[in-house]
């Protein structure tokens, strides 16, 4: 099984806050196998050495039946609101660490880098570096950039570079819309992320990004969030609204242009996802190594009662194709 949705982080990061204004991410060691992620003086999350200890990851992969992980940065490190100069440096630290992991265990790890998307031209240049120098499979990006949706024309140089260099784009929700109303009950993560991913996907479709970049490969986290469930409503308003859109076809026709991970935590939901877009557009994702991760990997997929050929495609074959391993 290949897991396309995992996160990692180097054990230490430079103190960018000493050189650049703003609240920069800092790792504070709390034990030999743990650390706190701090943003300035605010605690963001406690993490374990599963984030940086490759041998620990490999042991967990054996337990969970995972042949290969794709390591992506932790989304809080996107830092699009901070200095592009500093974020470019932090991105390179992470990208090189991920590339080192892939070089150390090329049969077990693949990687996705990160870029300072607040500076799209620099981000485009770094895509070339990520693909040609570091040999990573693509990039992970946030669902918005300083509150701008992903259809913003300023981002076109970045998307063009990804399409030109066959870089997979993994869209992960972050800084979710309506966060001021989602402060209780874990709603920012459970509901906010799903709505945020749906907004990103709809913007990519109706803003014409997929038309302008027909060779662009985009993977949506968490089964696409609420996107597919809301797509009939999106299309209904597309048919009956005077709002200007830039897609050349019906919104529903673009559902199969995206890839989706299987991280839905429910057998029926995974079966419905595969039934909607096909096994050739779905891959396994777990959110390892965080507490909410699906473990063992692909549990909902394996329990969905799908034909063996479909399960095999989602577990391995589709991932091999989009990672360039086939």
Show unreliable segments. Answer: none
**CATH third-level topology:** TIM Barrel
Second rung of CATH, namely the architecture: Alpha-Beta Barrel
**Given the helix and strand composition, which structural class is it?**
alpha/beta
Sheet bearing the most strands, described? Answer: 8 strands, parallel
Major beta sheet, strand line-up: 1-5-6-7-8-9-10-11
User: Can you say what the CATH homologous superfamily is?
Assistant: Metal-dependent hydrolases
Give the topology string: H per helix, E per strand. Answer: EEEEHEHEHEHEHHEHEHEHH
Average pLDDT:
97
Shape: globular
The rounded distance between the terminal residues' Cα atoms is: 14 Å
Question: How many domain regions?
Answer: 1
Radius of gyration, taken over Cα atoms and rounded to an integer in Å: 19 Å
Total count of helical runs of at least 4 residues: 10
Q: What is the top-level CATH class?
A: Alpha Beta
Write the layout of secondary structure elements.
Elements: E1 2-8, E2 25-31, E3 34-39, E4 42-48, H1 54-64, E5 68-73, H2 84-104, E6 109-113, H3 120-133, E7 138-142, H4 156-164, E8 168-172, H5 187-206, H6 209-212, E9 218-220, H7 227-240, E10 258-261, H8 267-277, E11 282-283, H9 299-302, H10 308-322
Helix pairs in contact: 3-4, 5-7
Subunit structure: Monomer.
Protein name: 2-amino-3-carboxymuconate-6-semialdehyde decarboxylase
Pfam families: Amidohydro_2
């Amino acid at each position: 099984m290949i897991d396309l949705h995992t996160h990692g982080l180097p054990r230490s990061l430079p103190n960018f806050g000493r050189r650049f204004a703003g609240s920069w991410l800092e790792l504070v060691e709390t034990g030999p196998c743990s650390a706190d992620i701090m943003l300035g003086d605010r605690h963001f999350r406690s993490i374990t050495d599963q984030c940086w200890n490759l041998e620990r990851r490999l042991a967990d992969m054996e337990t969970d039946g995972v042949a290969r992980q794709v390591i992506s940065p932790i989304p809080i490190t996107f830092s699009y609101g901070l200095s592009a100069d500093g974020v470019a440096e932090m991105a390179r630290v992470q990208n090189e660490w991920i590339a080192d992991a892939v070089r150390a265990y090329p049969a077990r790890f693949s990687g996705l880098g990160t870029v300072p998307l607040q500076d799209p031209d620099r981000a485009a240049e770094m895509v070339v570096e990520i693909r040609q120098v570091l040999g990573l499979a693509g990039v992970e990006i946030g669902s918005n950039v300083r509150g701008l949706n992903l259809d913003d024309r300023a981002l076109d140089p970045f998307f063009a570079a990804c399409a030109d260099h066959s870089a997979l784009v993994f869209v992960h929700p972050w800084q979710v819309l309506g966060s001021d109303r989602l402060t209780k009950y874990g709603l920012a993560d459970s509901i906010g992320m799903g709505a945020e991913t749906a907004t990103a996907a709809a913007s990519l479709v109706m803003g014409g990004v997929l038309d302008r970049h027909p060779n662009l490969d985009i993977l949506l986290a968490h089964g696409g969030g609420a996107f597919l469930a809301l797509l009939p409503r999106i299309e209904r308003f597309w048919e009956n609204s005077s709002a200007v859109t830039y897609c050349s076809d019906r919104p529903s026709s673009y559902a199969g242009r995206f890839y989706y991970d299987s991280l839905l935590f429910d057998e029926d939901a995974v079966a419905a996802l595969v039934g909607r877009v096909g096994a050739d557009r779905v891959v396994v994702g777990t959110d390892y190594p965080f507490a909410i991760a699906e473990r063992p990997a692909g549990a909902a997929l394996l329990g969905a009662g799908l034909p063996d050929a479909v399960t095999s495609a989602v577990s391995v074959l589709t991932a091999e194709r989009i990672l360039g391993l086939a």
